[in-house]
Amino acid sequence: MKNLLSLESLTKDEIYTVLELADTMKATRARPAHLPLAGQCWALIFSKSSTRTRVSFEVGIRELGGSVMFLSATDIQLGRGEPIKDTARVMGRMIDGAVIRTYLQSDVEVFAQFSGIPTINALTDDEHPCQILADLQTIREKFGALEGRKVCFIGDGACNVARSWIWAAARLDFELRIAAPLGYQPDAEILSAAGRTGHISVFEDVQEAVRGVDVLYTDVWVSMGKEEESAQRLLAMVPYQINDALVKLAAPQAIVMHCLPAYRGKEITADTFEAHASTLFDQAENRLHAQKAVLQIIARRD
Ligand code: CP
Ligand code: NVA
User: Fold this and answer.
1) Do 161 and 187 have their domain in common?
2) Closest ligand to residue 283's CA
3) Among 58, 194, 199, 289, which one is most buried in terms of CB atoms within 10 A?
């Protein structure tokens, strides 16, 4: 594994290698065995807002012995139109790795290709692989294993987080249900590429979708970059709110997850959020451990 550009590009073995190492990172955080990024300088290049991703990468890179610079895309020449492939060729000669949050999936791919340095997708319009790796770590912690679990993603079934969940389910042995209104369901193309009919299913009826599931998962109804569609999205997704009544339809020990930030009264109620806060913030913390695992795996060793 040289880069982490998508969940789609990972094999089952690669995902499990990250998850095992993520657990080790968490268990040994106070006494790390070694510093794989010692002497390295990494850059975070972000075109969209972030709290968790930015903080967890900045802390994680430092904890692994590296130094890090945060570059807002609007502050560098990229924001004034310098091509991504030129930015990549400059940075490839100076830094040891890059973490990129942007719009187009092709931008992280072009950056990786032209820079030649380890590159991590920190969220694009298509995928959020770091999030789902941390989520898988969290589900393993809560249930002991992923195998046989039922996860229901509720809300915008066409968003980046939902798409990365589809690729995770395509590779691993858990069942994924997506409950989303018409117009916000995953593309047939992705579902067909992911395969696993019966293992990944799409529902319009959210009550039916959550019956007996182990995990109810949601994300914002208006992803970054979709703000102009806010009014129609908020209207279409009203029936897809996670609230106490919906949680009661799931398995008795079901957990509630959210990649955060959460909008109370929209995709989740304040009461349900607070009742599941312990899981939600374990999930957020695991971003640090899962990403440290990725960093150690893909870091240059020369
Ligand atoms: N979940 C997530 O990626 O959060 P941020 O947008 O705060 O980084
Ligand atoms: N789908 C959301 C995820 C935020 C972490 C977005 O892209 O804004």
Assistant:
1) yes
2) 1
3) 289
pLDDT confidence of residue 197: 66
Domain check: are 108 and 175 in the same one? no
Total domains in the chain come to: 2
> How high is the pLDDT of residue 300?
83
The Cα 96–Cα 43 span in angstroms is: 8
Q: What is the pLDDT of residues 239-269, one digit of tens each?
A: 999 999 999 999 999 999 999 999 999 999 9
Q: How many helical (H) and strand (E) elements, i.e. helices and strands, does the chain have?
A: 12, 9
What does the pLDDT look like over 266-299, one tens digit per residue? 999 999 999 999 999 999 999 999 999 999 999 9
In the predicted model, residues of the chain with pLDDT beneath 70 are 196-197
Q: Is-cis flag, bond preceding 261, omega within 30?
A: yes
Domain coverage including residue 242: 130-284
**Catalytic-role residue among 152, 233, 259, 289:** 259
Could you count the other beta carbons within 10 Å of the beta carbon of residue 1? 14
Domain-located, residue 264: yes
Residue 152 is predicted with a pLDDT of: 98
- Cβ–ligand 2 distance for 159 under 6 Å, the answer yes
Distance 30 CA to ligand 2 centre (A): 31
CB atoms within 10 A of CB 223: 20
Reference 133, options 45, 214, 14, 50; nearest CA is: 14
pLDDT for res 301:
79
Q: Which protein residues touch ligand 1 with a CB less than 6 Å away?
A: 50-53, 123, 131, 259-261
- The amino acid sitting at 9 is S
Q: 26: domain CATH number?
A: 3.40.50.1370
